[in-house]
Amino acid sequence: MLSSIRARVVCACVALVVFSVVSSTATSYVIAKRSNEEAIERNLTSDVDNRAVVIGEWVASKGQMISSLQDVALTPDPLPMLKQVATAGGFWDIGIGYPNKSAKFTDWPNIPPDYDPTSRPWYRSAVQAGKPIATPYVSTSGALLVAFAYP
Question: Which keywords does this chain's UniProt record carry (predicted)?
Answer without folding.
Answer: Signal
